[in-house]
Design brief:
heterodimer; A: 350 residues; alpha/beta; 8-stranded mixed sheet; 3-stranded antiparallel sheet; 12 helices; globular; B: 616 residues; 7-stranded mixed sheet; 6-stranded mixed sheet; 19 helices
Chain lengths: 350, 616
């Protein structure tokens, strides 16, 4: 295992449309366990940002506390990062977004971080439809403290130590649909083909985009009886669709067979093309998504893919009706009313 | 029978029922006196509930300009039979009880030494108004009219206040005038007007305004360029953000697009409110929150993060009675230690102690500069008395050439010239490092903000040497801070007397009055008003140069004294506590009594030498 990342990159490596190489989207070397699902997600984020041509410094990556929350160090080294306190990343992201609506906000959290201490903030950042991509790296356990069950661990799931989880799980996808999230998707860290386009679509979505990514913990939750192990997830995965994301600037061609595929046009003209695998399911209909999720649950399936999207999503800034210019760029001439206005205010208090 | 007798020097108290609309009538009364040029200081004394329980409003009138609370009620307007017994007991010997005589007063409430002035308020309202709500509301105006006759308030002044108040509901003006007149005429016809306590027009308020501290604080935030406010409602701080919103709507809405140049979010709790402030300031906006003691407890984890990760934060703590839920609608200065050392580990925070609304405005504006300059939380320590009560104050002033001081923030051009940027490098040897705002430069200046230990380049590290370097630098920054924050104010003959007093915040009103009254007894104390923490060297000098220093504060556990002892390493024996913690603002009398008790019987009475204390 190496602890130093070589700085050398082959000059002939391909560049994306803004002239960056894929290596420009990498971060420090990961300190997570070899084989950790989280590293695969980091890889998918790097891939998605490279393909999208995101300017690294125009993306802010924020996280809470835990294994997953360490990952922002391992991607997009030229982005500002914020590793906040346990479960309270959503409020930091909210403040950051209020200050500057022009950056892309990528929140990374874990199941412990989001579904326990952070559950309240998760619900509220979703409710406010903050324009951010919120990735939950969900492994159903606490890795940093050596494998305790988290709140997303399934009822009856067996831990590495052999204990059986007696509690119902919190399903962040079901919860998000119920709370009114404008973009809800679930994926698997081992399915990069599905994950990368979902990340791209989530980044383009003007509102809160939840990506719940099952990401097995190879060290503490990859045993027999665990419902978040690689083997279990691979055996029970059921995709609603395969997704392709077509950015606005590319030529958009719609080519799908009625009944098997559909497409969603996003606010900026980008397109999410879905090759629909699941019958009676419409990704822009919340009820449809809820029903399909319940069906899957009853069958013991893990439903993945883009489950719901509201193409008319209005984010927090739209709701608050703030100016287009980022608030952090306003200065005295925009903000200070001056002594004359103060004289009037003084007079109102006499 | 004895009768209290005074001109322009009295305490009038109104005993009402919460929710009956008495507040605006009471405020009208106080404002009328203010507009007659007489210094006045009103205070709401209200319960922590929605309606139906007793509530009081107390107005101190003081020609000399003493604006602290004074014990003893000269005239009480009692319209709440629920609290009659307690109210009548609070009246000074020879004082007055104005009550609704629609029903006969029970014999139990007749106290010798009190003058009873019955006005059949309800009866008159029943006769003149049909709407039941009006019958109740105008009762309040009836007693204001009666007081106008009894105490001599110029009717035209009150009428102008009513006109202004109902300028958008003009049809309510005549019935208000009528109620006023009903009370006035009844008092004139049935009592000898004026009473021995009365008012006379003066010219003692100059260009002062009457404003509460929370509104002034909000205006400070507006003028400082705050664009983000995140908060969670809690008494007594709620009106800070509400006022910010009101003024932002007026002053910060783009006239062309109608869009807002500010963002306010009512968070789900105080934890989130503080998180939002941190996120916003990390991202280069000026942001703040306002809360009270329980909120500070909840925010503490984040305050520690902001301290360690060095993120500017402005927090307004409008203190109330603690601990726990304590007395939510009563005042104290009891969050001194929990604010100064909020959060775990070795943390210290800058505190500002405003004493007046004008200072709330100025300190609020300054707090944003300080937060940016020092990259640390700045906590403004207001309290319920200052925040929620109207105070006579010099008008708010702003220097139009004043610029926001954003501190050490690197621009893209500056980053371009730097070979290797280190977020936590102490380039200037003052403990304050250079920060960058996300999105500034494509390849330079990004860093990772975290609450864990890291090196000068913001790289995670648990190395002891690295950690010690960080916390030692933060200690150095703390020393630097002392030259940035407002210096203490000295009163009277500094360092010339054996004894001194130290006070801060709202205790200052009573402390200044106590100094004057003690002087009349021949006791002159040097005095220092502290405006900020950390304490600079003048505070240590002041303590060192006196044999004994009285420390006036409004909490049980001598928290400010503890801070002085801890931070200045002075002997606790030199610092004598003068305390008040019942939830009501401290009075000059309480200070004097405690000081007198602690003075040795042989204490020399020093001649006064015409010392005159400054007003705030």
């Amino acid at each position: 295992m190496t602890f130093v990342k070589p700085a050398f990159r082959h000059p002939g490596l391909p560049k994306n449309k803004i002239g960056f190489r894929k290596a420009d989207y990498e971060g420090a070397i990961s300190t997570l366990c070899a084989g950790c699902g989280h590293d695969s997600i980091s890889g998918a984020i790097i891939q998605a940002c490279y393909e999208m041509g995101v300017e690294p410094h125009k993306l802010a990556k924020l996280s809470g506390i835990g294994c997953s929350s360490k990952t922002p160090t391992y991607f997009l080294g030229n982005s500002h990062g914020f590793n906040s306190v346990h479960g309270r990343m959503p409020s930091i992201a909210t403040g950051a977004n209020m200050a500057n609506r022009d950056l892309i906000y990528l929140g990374v959290s874990g199941d412990g971080d989001t579904a326990s201490i952070g559950l309240g903030q998760f619900c509220h950042v979703l409710r406010r439809n903050l324009n951010m991509m919120y990735i939950v790296m969900n492994n159903g356990c606490y890795g940093l403290t050596k494998g305790q069950d988290s709140a997303t661990a399934d009822l009856g799931s067996v831990s590495k130590a052999g204990s059986v989880n007696p509690f119902e799980p919190i399903d962040l996808v079901g919860l998000s649909l119920e709370l009114g999230a404008s973009f809800v998707a679930r994926s698997f860290s081992g399915d990069k083909t599905q994950l990368v386009p979902l990340i791209k679509a989530a980044m383009s979505h003007p509102g809160f985009a939840l990506l719940d990514v099952l990401s097995p913990c190879v060290t503490f939750n990859n045993n027999n009886g665990s419902t978040k192990s690689y083997d279990f997830v691979r055996d029970h995965i059921e995709a609603t669709s395969t997704v392709d994301y077509v950015p606005e600037k590319d030529e958009i061609t719609i080519d799908y067979e009625e009944g098997t595929s559909s497409s969603v046009v996003m606010h900026d003209g980008s397109l999410i093309q879905l090759s629909k695998l699941s019958p009676h399911w419409n990704p822009t209909n919340r009820d449809s998504a809820v029903n399909r999720l319940q069906e899957a649950k009853a069958k013991g399936e893990i439903l993945t893919g883009l489950l719901y999207i509201d193409p008319k999503s209005k984010d927090l800034h739209k709701i608050l009706d703030t100016v287009e210019q980022p608030l952090n760029s306003l200065r005295e001439k925009d903000l200070m009313p001056g002594q004359q206005a103060l004289d009037k205010i003084n007079a109102s208090f006499r | 029978m004895m009768t209290v007798s005074a001109v322009n020097d009295m305490v009038i108290r109104f005993a009402n029922v919460n929710g009956t609309g008495s507040a605006s009538a009471n405020e009208m009364f106080a404002k009328a006196i203010f507009r007659m040029g007489i210094p006045v200081s009103p205070k709401n004394i209200f319960p922590s509930n929605i309606q139906g329980l007793p509530t009081w409003y107390e107005v101190r009138v003081s020609e000399q300009g003493y604006l602290g609370r004074r014990d003893g009620v000269d005239l009480l307007v009692g319209v709440n039979p629920q609290s009659y017994a307690k109210d009548i007991a609070s009246i000074k010997e020879g004082g007055y009880f104005v009550y609704d005589s629609t029903k006969r007063l029970h014999d139990d409430f007749i106290r010798e030494g009190v003058h009873y002035i019955g006005i059949p308020m309800m009866q008159m309202c029943m006769e003149h108004y049909e709407n039941p709500r009006h019958q109740q509301l105008f009762k309040n105006i009836v007693y204001v009219g009666a007081l106008a006759a009894l105490l001599v308030i110029e009717m035209e002044v009150i009428q102008n206040i009513i006109r202004a108040q109902f300028s958008r509901k003009e049809k309510l003006i005549p019935p208000n005038f009528k109620a006023l007149d009903l009370g006035y005429q009844y008092a004139k016809a049935h009592y000898s007007c004026p009473l021995d306590i009365r008012l006379e027009r003066r010219d003692h308020v100059g260009d002062s305004i009457m404003i509460d501290g929370n509104a002034a604080t909000a205006l400070g935030a507006i003028y400082a360029g705050a664009t983000v406010a995140a908060w969670y409602p809690i008494t007594p701080s709620t009106s800070v953000v509400k006022a910010f919103e009101t003024y932002a709507k007026k002053l910060r809405t783009d006239p062309e697009t109608g869009k807002k140049k500010y963002a306010i979010v009512q968070a789900e709790d105080e934890l989130a409110a503080m998180g939002m402030v941190i996120g916003a300031t990390w991202n280069g906006a000026r942001a703040f929150t306002a809360t009270s003691g329980p909120g500070v407890s909840l925010m503490s984890e984040f305050i520690g993060l902001a301290y360690f990760a060095e993120i500017p934060v402005v927090l307004v703590n409008v203190q109330r009675g603690g601990p726990s839920t304590g007395m939510p609608t009563r005042t104290q200065q009891s969050d001194i230690l929990s604010s100064a050392y909020a959060s775990h580990g070795d943390t210290k925070h800058v505190l500002l102690f405003p004493s007046t609304p004008a200072e709330c405005f100025e300190m609020s504006a300054t707090a944003f500069d300080l937060a940016d300059q020092l990259q640390t939380p700045i906590i403004m320590m207001s309290d319920l008395d200052l925040g929620m009560n109207s105070h006579m104050s010099p008008p708010l002033k702003w220097n139009d050439v004043r610029k926001y001081d954003l501190g050490k923030v690197l621009s893209a051009d500056e980053l371009e010239k730097i070979e290797k940027y280190g977020r936590y490098l102490d380039v200037d040897d003052d403990g304050i490092c250079y920060r960058t705002i996300p999105g500034t430069h494509p390849t330079k200046g990004s860093f990772f903000t975290r609450g864990t230990s890291r090196d000068e380049y913001a790289r995670y590290s648990e190395d002891s040497d690295v950690y010690e370097r960080i916390v030692d630098r933060l200690a150095k920054k703390w020393e630097t801070t002392k030259s940035y924050i407002p210096a203490p104010e000295l009163f009277q003959q500094s360092n010339q007397n054996e004894r001194g007093i130290i006070f801060f915040g709202t205790s200052s009103y009573a402390a200044l009055e106590a100094m004057d009254l003690l002087k009349q007894k021949g006791i002159v104390l040097d005095a220092m008003r502290i405006k900020a923490f950390p304490f600079n060297s003048t505070v240590a000098d002041f303590v060192d140069s006196h044999e004994e220093v009285f420390v006036i504060e409004q909490n049980r556990d001598k928290q400010f004294r503890a801070l002085l002892v801890n931070e200045l390493e002075v002997s606790p024996k030199k610092l004598t506590p003068i305390l008040n913690y019942g939830g009501m603002p401290i009075t000059a009398d309480a200070i004097i009594q405690q000081i007198m008790k602690k003075l040795p019987a042989t204490a020399p009475l020093i001649s006064t030498n015409n010392h005159k204390s400054k007003t705030l």
